[in-house]
Amino acid sequence: MPRLRLLSGGAALLRSFVPGLCAGLLLVSGCGSVARADAALPQTVVNYRVYAHGFNVMDIQASYRLSETQYGVAAHIKTGGFFGLFMKTNLQTSAQGRFDSQAVEPDSYDSVGWSRGRNRHVSLAYRDKMPVVTLLDPAEPDREVVPDADKKGAIDTLAALMNLLHQVRTTQTCSGQAKVFDGMRLSTLSMHPVGLQRLPSGGPLEWGEDALRCDFVAQQTEGFKFNSEKSKLRNPQPGRAWFEKIGDAGFVAVRVEIDHPKLGRITILLDGTPKQAT
């Protein structure tokens, strides 16, 4: 891909990928210890690199505590490699919540840092299964408002990711649908299992053998900017995630692929062996 095309598509990548962090699965971060989840649980620390057309466009550090009943997760997301010379993103995100059997019940979500040309801060709280925006700075009056009736039952992106990992760990499969709300945009996320499969490109000695593959489709449905009627970001974004058991860390996402409507295939790779911390 020509350099200018990649850079011009960078804003779209940051808009659709960073706030949702994917519907692209377990990119969570190591920005200190994670609050809320039982401190007796070990903290898993992972790192990921994000590639678009061979360019390293983002780096993600990750840490989380996850049990059968609760989770705490934080994330540090920043532009990386050559891409970071032209665009800057530096976000800290965090979320906490609980599980009722296989159902996730988020408590809070927060995202703060530099994105789309300025500092931004979004905070969500949950009341009776309703995500409530407690902080949105700056406001975005050029974007359509998502009605409360449509937000009912929606969860934040990190809750969706932790719910997926929780399901993989407890049932060794993945399936289901969710509404995802990031404070501005409402999306749908559907998942289904494919089964065990060898990773497309192998991996280090610690992993790279047969992995549990989960396919998903994410699609923004509401919260578009008023001038985006023909935006390709309205299209479904299919993807695939592979999970492997790695030592004491248990199941970890080792590879994620997202078919972005503007930038094509985005690949997210585990960078180094996960670490366990107290």
> In terms of per-residue confidence, which ranges show pLDDT below 50 for 5 or more consecutive residues?
1-35
Q: End-to-end distance, in Å?
A: 43 Å
Q: Give the oligomer, counting copies of the same chain as homo and different chains as hetero.
A: single chain
Helix content: 10-25%
Following the backbone from N to C, one meets helices and strands in this order, namely HHEEEEEEEHHEEEEEEE
Overall spatial form:
globular
What fraction of the residues are assigned to beta strands by DSSP?
Answer: over 45%
InterPro entries: DUF3108
Pfam families: DUF3108
Protein name: DUF3108 domain-containing protein
Protein architecture, described:
The protein has 278 residues and is mostly beta strands. It has helices at residues 3-8, 10-17, 148-151, 157-171; strands at residues 43-52, 55-66, 70-79, 90-100, 103-115, 118-127, 130-137, 176-181, 186-198, 210-222, 237-245, 251-260, 264-270, 275-277. Strands 1, 2, 3, 4, 5, 6, 7, 8, 9, 10, 11, 12, 13 and 14 form a 14-stranded antiparallel sheet that branches. The longest helix is centred in the middle third of the chain and has 15 residues, at 157-171. The chain is globular. InterPro entries: DUF3108 (IPR021457). It comes from Acetobacter malorum DSM 14337. Pfam families: DUF3108. This is DUF3108 domain-containing protein.
Please name the defining characteristics of this protein:
49% strand; 12% helix; 4 helices; single chain; 14-stranded antiparallel sheet; mainly beta; disordered N terminus; 278 residues
